[in-house]
Structures are given as structure tokens and as C-alpha cells.
Amino acid sequence: MTEKALTPYQANTTAQLARKKIYAGVPDDDVQLALAICQKYDLDPLLRHVVLIKGRTKDRGGNWADRYSVYITRDGLLHAAHQSGVPFSIEFEQPIKAENPYTDSPDIYLQGTLCRDGHPSFKGGLWFSEYVQTGKAGNAIGAWKTHPAAMHQKVVEVYLLRRGFDVSLMPLEEIQSTLKGEIVEVKATATDNESEDPFGNHAFDLDNPVFASYDELYYRAVEHLGYNHIEHAKNALRVATGGDVDGLTHQGAWQLLKDHQAAKVADEVEPETEQG
């Protein structure tokens, strides 16, 4: 993996946002650790590449104290994989309903293969019951209830990416079902009492936008164009360009994202118009 240091612009922006808006009250050592990990793997907490999980533990004197642990997310793993410069893909097999030999209960097993440079390099699979998030009654909750197939595939994807690209940091998705702590992360919008722009662009003009980077462009797409999250905007641009973004200017990409979102809204409104 190619390890890069954050540029002065990125480091300054990340540190300011992390310390003033997100990590207020978090011990400085924990903040430093999170930022050091971002630098090692060229990750950006502004894009939710890493999160801090707040938990409780006893110190040497037997007193309870807050403890923060750093985890990488799927977005962070995908970023690290792309930064490696190695073409890769993940192929999933059909899920198999079978008895889990570890629990002797009916379960679902999903296996995938990570290919690097077109060649299979790592294969692995996971049991659904071992990662599903459940409520007190033991039933699936949240996205695991509404989109179980996508969530199962997501944890297998994370499992393969971490091992295929030598990322030693524990992924959030692999242990999320066991977490009871508080996730401390960088949000896409400022808090009510903070007016500082995370990209230092206080005079952003929707009619004549200027972007310092694609990171800022995707951030603005979430902030102003109605995209749900950074990856949503990235995927939309891939669809709009057929996956070929080389040579595309920031302004050109912005216009494509605007058109893509406008077309989506039109498609959603049209059926209601016809029925009326």
C-alpha cells in the first residue's frame, strides 16, 4: 500500500474540524492517535474513513473512565484499496442456507473472492448470525432488518478488503454488532453554533462553484444537492460518466451531479403526475 502524508491543507482542515467540532472533550492523546492513523493510511475523517468509539473501562485504581477506540469504516478500506493503485474487484457467490457448525442452528453463509489485477487473491466468507445487529428480543434491527442481503455483503466486503490490502486497523462493520458505545465521527454539516466551513470556503457560490478538491466537491453535493452521503455522490458520478472521470473538471463533475439528481427527482415525481 502506498502511504502518504496529509497535505498541509488537509491536515489543517482535519485538525481544526476534529478538535473544535467533533472531538471536543475527547482526550488529546486519542485525537492524536486518530489523526496519526489517518496520516499513515492516507485517510480522511471528513469522509468518515475512521470513527472513534467511546466506551468505559476501569483504570488501575479500579475507577471507571471513558476510553476511545479507533476503527476504520468500509469507506476507509475502499479508499485505502484505491490508493494502492492495484486494480481490484470483489465477486460474491450465492448465499447458502445451511446449519452453522458453531451454533448448530440454521444460518446463511456468504462467500466472496477478492481479485487483484484480475487474479483471485483472497477468498473468505461469513455467517449471517455472527454479524447481524439485533435488539433485545433477538430480532434484526435497522438496516439489517430492512436490507439484510446488502448488509451481509457489506461485512464480507470489509472482511476481504482488510485482509487483501494489509490494513491492520479493526473495521467498524466487523464488530459493530457487539458495540454498546458511542460513535464519535466527523459530520457532513456544521453544528448550529459553528459557522466555520470545514473546507475554509466561507464564500461558496452555488451558481459559480469553485472546489479545492474532489473531496470538497462530494461534500458540497451532500450539503447542497441532496445526496445522502459521500459515497452516494461518488457512485452517482461514476454512473453519469460510465466510470471514466479522467480529464473531467470539477465544474463539469458538479454539473453532472446536479443533472443526475434532477433526473432522479423527476423520475420520482412523474408517476404521481400520471396518476393525478
- The overall pLDDT, averaged over residues, is 77
Number of helices: 9
Amount of beta strand: 15-25%
Main sheet makeup = 4 strands, antiparallel
Number of domains: 3
Total strand segments: 7
Report the radius of gyration as a whole number of Å.
21 Å
3D shape: globular
Can you give the helix content as a percent range?
Answer: 40-55%
Cα-to-Cα separation, first versus last residue: 56 Å
- The parts where pLDDT drops under 50 for at least 5 residues are 185-195, 265-276
Structure characterization notes:
By secondary structure, the chain is an alpha+beta fold. It folds into 3 domains: 1-84 and 166-187, no CATH class; 86-164, no CATH class; 194-269, no CATH class. Helix content is 41%, strand content 19%. The protein has 9 helices and 7 strands. Strands 3, 4, 5 and 6 form a 4-stranded antiparallel β-sheet that branches. Helix 7 (214-224) crosses helix 8 (230-241) and helix 8 crosses helix 9 (250-275). The longest helix is centred in the last third of the chain and has 26 residues, at 250-275. It is globular and about 60 Å long.
